[in-house]
Structure formats: C-alpha cells, structure tokens
C-alpha cells in the first residue's frame, strides 16, 4: 500500500517539476547573470554535456557543494586504484565547489555540474552518461534522480548519509513518508555517518539490510593543493606571526563576526601583540567585515589583496576559498564557527584537529554533534564546547596557560588520528561488496 502511495506521490512530483521547468530555467539564467552559476557551463545544469562519454563502465559521484565533494575524493581515488577499468564522473551544484574541486581531482576524472532535478534535465543526463552506479553524498535525496536511476537499472549508494532534524520531521509526515520510503527502497547501500542518522533512515523505512556503518568521511578530507605563490604566502605569514599570539575563527556565518570581534577587543587589552585570523564561510562576507572594521579605524589585512601583517595590524581576514587547512597550521587555537548562534548547524572540526590545534566550537553544531561527541570520548580535552559568552574566558585561559594549550592541541590530534584510520578502506569494502560487484559485472 505504501509503495503504491509512493508511486502516486512521485508521479505528482514529476508532473510538478515538469510544469515548473520553464520557470526553473529562467531562474537558472537569472542566477547565471548574477554570477552564482558558471557563466559558460551553466547548460550542464540542464543535462547538456560539455564533454564526451568514454566507452566502458562509469561510476557517478554526486555531491552538493565543496565539503561533500572533498569528502568524496579519497573514495574516488580508492575506486580508481581498485577499478582502473572504470571512468569516474563527478558532479556538484555550486560554482565555488567547481573552482576548488576540479584542481583536486585525480587525472581522468570527468567533472560536470549536476543537472536540476527536473524530468528533461535528469532524463537527458542519465541517458547520455549511462552510469553503472550512482554514489550520492550525504543528503542528496532527489526523487527524479533516484527513481530515474532505478528505472534505468542503475545501482544506488548513499555515502556519509545524513538528514537534519528538520528534514527528518518533514519527510516523516504521513503525506511524504510513502515517497521517501519508495526512494530509500531503491538503494543497495546506505552508509550513515552516525548511529543516530542510521536510526533516522530506518524510521523512514529504509531496508535495514542496506544500512552499514563505516565511519565519517569528513575525517578523511585531504589537504588542498594550492599554488606555489599560495604556499610561499603561507610561509611568509608564519614568519610574520612567529612572535605574536594567534587565534583563528573559521567558517563564521553572518552575525557571528560581532561575537568574535567583541572577544577580540577584550583580549587585545590583555595581549596587545595578538592577531585574530577570521575565515568567513563565504568570501564576500570577509570583504564586508574588512570594510566595516576599516570604517572603525582598525588596521585590517585582507588575504585576497595579499596584504601583510604589519605592526599595528591585529586582524587578518581570509576572503579566499580552498586554503582553510593551510591556515590551521598558522594557529595553535581554532574556533569553529557556524555554531554560536541559534539556527546554525556547525562545521567540520576534524580539519583543525588534524593540524594539531586546540579546538573550540559552539553548542549549535547540528549533525556535527556526533563528531564532537566521538572526539570527546576519544580524549575529553580534544574539543571544548562553549557558548558565545564563555568564549572570551576560554581563550584567555589558553593564552595564559601554555600547559593547558599544549594538552588540548595534543588531545585534538590524537583523537583525530584514532577516529580517522581505516575509514576509506571500510567504505570501499562496503561499496564493492554491496554495489559494484553487481553493477559492474
């Protein structure tokens, strides 16, 4: 009965997305004019390829944005090692992901922008590329993609599977449950990033036998390659920061800069030689922060302008993409943003831990709560969760007590090493056994 309701709901969804296609096309063109979509390759979002399909087996990895894309790359590399006979196709939806990911992919991997989940675009994409298997990352649950792939006999896997509390609540409603149940029934493998996420997928009626645990792929994200000039610039910054106290706040969202700058001003009274590195989630936000601070008469160095940290400059704003891991090597203290205001859902803390930083984050961490909890279980000193009001006191203690700082840096690195080992191998084994053995025969 639920299966029939699911099919009915999918037919309604397919009809709606078909009817909305002209408006979505206009919206896509508008986004292109705004610079949000790629100025040349935007037709790929309509399922129009920009390169030819090689003969033979093809595995499609689909990600939403930069973070998911970087988490997929270690698995892609393992696939290439184990199955060199297969072509790898990778898609994402954002121009920012395109700019970074295309420089990190192994030679031979094809990159395209993902098609919109409208019938014409998705049918054209699947008809042209004819993948043997589709690997979806995290929460990319699109009805036309999933059911279109299943209709064409294409195997499906969901890696690092997660669903926010809000999405889970929406899909759990009686009117939508049959549709998500139908979609999840088409997967040969679902690899949740935590036990809680696995429970959510089971409650949405995913077949229990397809749910397997392998660890969080966010632990396996590799260091980005940057240009020789970028490497040289990082080395120059190390010299400029050598004799100054440093802390960094990364991935902040709008509104959080007020919290961080308030803490900065208080700490500056105690440590006049201090430098605060601010890495906003979006580069444009960084430029806006720099402009506002300059209006207040503060000396600010902006990364995109290659400005130096001269005497009297206490704030360095990083308004570029793809350099976060390198900046973690410049600071002993990393505060992970996107977590200090209600409604935010946190960011990946493992990159800072891998660099050996003392890691602090707020309490609004969403699905990253599992990562925080596992790291704290591995070593209680590895991650410190504080409120916006407690941040100043926590940083003051780290600045004034080198033993505590060193202990937290060491704990974070040890926790990361303990939790990151073997994940890619585990994921590959699950993929090979549950999906690829049948899909590539």
Radius of gyration computed on alpha carbons? 23 Å
Strand order of the largest sheet: 9-10-8-7-11-12-13
Give me the count of strands. 13
Overall residue-averaged pLDDT value: 94
Helix content: 40-55%
Percentage of residues in strands = 5-15%
Biggest sheet details: 7 strands, parallel
Number of helices: 17
Give the structural class. alpha/beta
Order of helices and strands: HEHEHEHEHEHHEHHEHEHEEHEHEHEHHH
Described by the principal axes of the CA atoms, the overall outline is globular
Parts with pLDDT < 50 across at least 5 consecutive residues = none
> Span from first to last CA?
33 Å
Verbal overview:
With 441 residues, the protein is α/β, with parallel strands linked by helices. It contains 17 helices and 13 strands. The radius of gyration is 23 Å and the shape is globular. Helix 2 links the parallel strand 1 and strand 2.
């Amino acid at each position: 009965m639920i299966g029939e309701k699911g099919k009915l709901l999918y037919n309604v969804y397919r009809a709606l997305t078909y009817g909305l296609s002209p408006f979505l096309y206009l919206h896509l063109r508008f986004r292109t004019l705004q610079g949000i979509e790629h100025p040349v390759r935007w037709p790929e979002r309509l399922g129009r390829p920009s390169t030819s399909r090689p003969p033979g087996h093809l595995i499609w990895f689909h990600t939403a944005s930069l973070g998911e894309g970087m988490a997929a790359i270690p698995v892609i590399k393992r696939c290439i090692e184990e199955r060199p006979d297969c072509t790898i196709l990778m898609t994402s939806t954002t121009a920012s992901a395109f700019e970074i990911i295309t420089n990190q992919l192994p030679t031979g991997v094809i990159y395209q922008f993902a098609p919109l989940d409208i019938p014409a675009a998705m049918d054209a994409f699947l008809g042209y590329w004819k993948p043997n298997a589709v690997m979806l990352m995290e929460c990319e649950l699109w009805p036309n993609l999933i059911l279109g792939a299943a209709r064409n006999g294409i195997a499906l896997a969901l890696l690092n599977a997660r669903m926010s509390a809000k999405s889970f609540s929406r899909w759990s409603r009686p009117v939508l449950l049959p549709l998500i149940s139908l979609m999840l029934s088409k997967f040969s493998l679902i690899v949740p990033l935590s036990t809680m996420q696995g429970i959510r997928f089971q409650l949405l009626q995913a077949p229990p036998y397809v749910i397997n645990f392998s660890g969080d792929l966010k632990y396996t994200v590799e260091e980005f390659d940057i240009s020789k000039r970028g490497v040289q610039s990082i080395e120059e910054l190390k010299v400029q920061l050598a004799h100054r106290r440093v802390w960094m706040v990364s991935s902040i969202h709008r509104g959080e800069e007020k919290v961080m700058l308030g803490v900065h001003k208080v700490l500056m009274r105690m440590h006049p030689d201090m430098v605060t590195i601010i890495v906003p989630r979006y580069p444009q936000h960084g430029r806006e922060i720099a402009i506002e601070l300059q209006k207040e008469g503060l000396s600010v160095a902006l990364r995109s302008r290659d400005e130096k940290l001269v005497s009297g400059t206490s704030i360095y704003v990083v308004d570029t993409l793809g350099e976060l891991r390198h900046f973690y090597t410049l600071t002993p203290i990393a505060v992970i943003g996107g977590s200090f205001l209600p409604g935010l859902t946190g960011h990946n803390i493992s990159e800072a831990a891998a660099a050996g930083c003392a890691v602090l984050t707020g309490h609004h961490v969403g699905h990253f709560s599992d990562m925080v909890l596992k790291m704290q279980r591995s070593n209680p000193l590895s991650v410190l969760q504080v409120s916006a009001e407690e941040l100043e006191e926590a940083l003051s203690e780290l600045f004034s007590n080198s033993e505590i700082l060193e202990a937290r840096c060491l704990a974070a690195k040890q926790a990361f090493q303990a939790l990151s080992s073997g994940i890619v191998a585990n994921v590959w084994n699950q993929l090979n056994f549950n999906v690829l053995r049948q899909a590539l025969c």
